[in-house]
Amino acid sequence: MPTDPASGPAAPSNPSGEARDHQVTKSPSPRRLITDGIRNQSTAEISRALELDRSLLPFALSSAISKGSVPLIAYLLTTENAPINTLTPLNITTEPSIELLDVVVSAGWDLNQRSPDKGAGKGQRLLDLVAWDEGLVKWCLEHGAQVSDGVEDEDTLKYPPFSEKVAASGTLSTFKRLRANNARMGRRTLHWAAESAATCDAADKPERMAILRFLVEEERLDVNRIDTDGQLPNHWGTPIAYAAKGKGGEDVVRYLLAMGADPRAKDCWGNHDALSLAEFYGNEDVVRVLRESTKGKEGG
Fold first, then answer.
1. What is the pLDDT of residues 180-189, one digit of tens each?
2. 3-state class of 9 per DSSP?
3. Looking at per-residue confidence, does 159 or 242 come out higher?
4. DSSP of 217-233
């Protein structure tokens, strides 16, 4: 058929246009393939990426861990031989589950290793990072996790005993399990329990108060024990001082007073007591409770 004169001759092919088309259809980078493969739960995409760049194995494993994808983690460890020693406790607890722990521990990951001393999660073990989850703690203890590895004996400030973590965020059942496993008390176990009970949400209050009562009434921890023998920052004195700092801590303060806590006990610097801390943090209800408790005793 003749060409329409108005339209002119057909345009010749454009090499530069072909180059642009080629760039549009260029294969994604191996790193992008891994990211897409994890999002799509596709071992095929991950395998293709690793064929292009085997050095991305640690990245693939940590990415799968961060999404809690147990099937992909198992694939990377068993089929691709991903390096299990690149995982830290902080990596493992990004999206923790018993199924995930079972896979990595079966592959040889050490339940008792500590995170590096620098950066997030420094010096902490898996147990420290899952103290809030009764099921995970139970699983760890049943699979060889040590309540104490002895490191906390060297520096209790840097490596606080596990009992302090559970007192602040765990359950009473978990705490009793620890004691059955000979977990030792920390210098601030009661202090953290008091602070947590004073600052927690209403839904968590019964559990936090149950732990506080257990520590005072059954474990017989000293309600007037100061938190350090030296002078250290962020140390507030006795348990009642820790409770006085928290909004909504008046019930905790009343309980500790009833159990013999001295509201006038000073911190390690000799500067603050429970009342001055409550005033500083603007906790008027706690201030009122403490002032009522010391009426007529200022000169005692």
1. 888 888 889 9
2. coil
3. 242
4. IIS---TT--S-SS--T
